[in-house]
Amino acid sequence: MDGLCGKGIWLAHSYDLQRAVEMATRMEASHLLVKTGHGPHYFPESARGLLGRIRSLGFQPLAWIHITDRVPEDALWAVVQSLELGYEAVVLYLGAALLTGRQLQPLAEALRQAEVPTQKLLVATPPPAHLPDRAALEVLAPLCQGGWMPLCFPLWGRSADELIEQDVYQSLPELSLMWGRTPEVYPTLSPQFSRQTEAPFLPEDLIPWIEVVMRHGVDFFSVYHAALTEKALWPILQTVTVRCQTTSVSVVAPENPGVILPQPVYITVNANDTVWGIISRHGLTRTKFWEWNGHLWDSRGLPRDGDYLQAGWRVRIK
User: Fold this and answer.
1) What is the 3-state secondary structure (H, E, C) of the chain?
2) Could you state, in order of their start, the residue ranges of all structural domains in the chain?
3) Residue-wise pLDDT tens digits, 303-313
4) Per residue in 79-105, pLDDT tens?
5) Would you state the CATH architecture of domain 266-316?
6) Which CATH architecture has domain 6-239?
């Protein structure tokens, strides 16, 4: 498998497909990640049924399996079956499970014995600093040469800069020793503060996470998961371009494929700012301003009123 390129959306359940397709279409995603197993259990019907539907809709199918402490090695069956069905790769998802390296050794050995192609395996975990046992990642890394999907979730209690910049990218020297090389990094975002709160995750909450991801010019990032992501966030996710894609609806592709495409620019609203002042100062049209920023009003149930602008909002100007 070549490296991933584009944007992905995770499905927690098979019945999330319709919403995932709507979200993928709006944010111009390329991949849908289907849950084909949980612990020792494989889900053959949904794995088979969703595969064909996803392909017929023009998306690329990836499988993911939630690895638990319940006989982890039994997840091998779901891995093998998913690849044989035709999923392009399989993601081993550790999440917040309190798994140790010793518990995962039987799974690693089973994958080796079955000669599962390492380039078709990826692993999704919290950054090393948030793992209960770093050896869990160390055990799976050599077998998951397809790449690492760091779970960049606000619920770990860190800001976007702290989590992505420090905990993810500053850990690459350590991870390179685990992988035997610098792994491909495909961040996974989740618009959720914690499992205990129902506080809405608003567009201005998402923007700092997007900005840090864009700063690194990634080839692929994904969102966990479709049912959790409010529609007000979809326009922001749509604005992100990834390094490997050479075309954009608003940017001419450069001749040099190594050049990173321009990314959206945001400013923080001050107390004295007005909508019309921002439009005038930055040379915007009213139509473009509302196209980019109307979700700030919509997500709060407010009319798109140019006289209402709240200090602290992040608005797009380019």
Assistant:
1) CCCCCEEEEEECCHHHHHHHHHHHHHHCCCEEEEEEEECCEECHHHHHHHHHHHHHCCCEEEEEEECCCCCHHHHHHHHHHHHHHCCCCEEEECCCCCCCHHHHHHHHHHHHHCCCCHHHEEEEECCHHHCCCCHHHHHHHHHCCCEEEEEECHHHCCCHHHHHHHHHHHHHHHHHHHHCCCCCECCEECCCCCCCCCCCCCHHHHHHHHHHHHHCCCCEEEECCHHHCCHHHHHHHHHCCCCCCCCCCCCCCCCCCCCCCCCCCEEECCCCCCHHHHHHHCCCCHHHHHHHHHHHHHCCCCCCCCCCCCCCCEEECC
2) 6-239, 266-316
3) 777 777 887 77
4) 999 999 999 999 999 987 789 999 999
5) Roll (3.10)
6) Alpha-Beta Barrel (3.20)
